[in-house]
Amino acid sequence: MEVKLIRTESDYQKALERLEMIFDAKIGTQESDEADVLGLLIDEYEKKHYPIDAPDPIEAIKIRMEEMHLKQVDLIKEIGGKSRVSEILNRRRKLTVDMIRNLTTRLNLSAGLLIKDYQLIK
């Protein structure tokens, strides 16, 4: 097993190719251990060179609603009325502190994510 740090794009591509070759290695083998280490190295390289930004608050709410199979009417209690939910999700109105508190509990989202600024559509 020859594993080295991934420092360049070329190193990254080689690591991906190697991981693809040994991905299905039997657990407990040397190749399986190598795949685990390569996976960690690739993950760190991707975090540094290909970061993925967190979604804005409205996108986060919509994603969680989809994951939880919720419809807009399911958030009436947390946001306050059918039209208010529509205004929030269509970016016509900002979330309030009370809405954020309610949504963090209902959707299990962090308040830090929901308090981020986002653009309204006028």
Search tags:
2 domains, about 120 residues, 434 Repressor (Amino-terminal Domain), 7 helices, elongated, mainly alpha
Task: Describe it.
This protein is mainly α and 122 residues long. It has 2 domains: 9-49; 57-114, Orthogonal Bundle (434 Repressor (Amino-terminal Domain)), CATH 1.10.260.40. Helices cover 59% and strands 0% of the residues. The protein is built from 7 helices and no strands. It has helices spanning 9-22, 30-49, 57-67, 76-79, 82-89, 97-107, 111-114. α1 runs antiparallel to α2 (30-49).
Number of domains: 2
Shape: elongated
CATH topology of the largest domain: 434 Repressor (Amino-terminal Domain)
Pattern of helices and strands: HHHHHHH
Using the 3D structure, state the CATH architecture of the largest domain.
Answer: Orthogonal Bundle
Regarding quaternary structure, what we see is: single chain
Q: Could you tell me the mean pLDDT? A: 94
Distance between the first and last residues' Cα:
58 Å
Low-confidence stretches: none
Characterize the main sheet: none
Can you summarize this structure?
This protein is an all-alpha fold and 122 residues long.
In terms of topology, how is this protein built?
Layout: H1 9-22, H2 30-49, H3 57-67, H4 76-79, H5 82-89, H6 97-107, H7 111-114
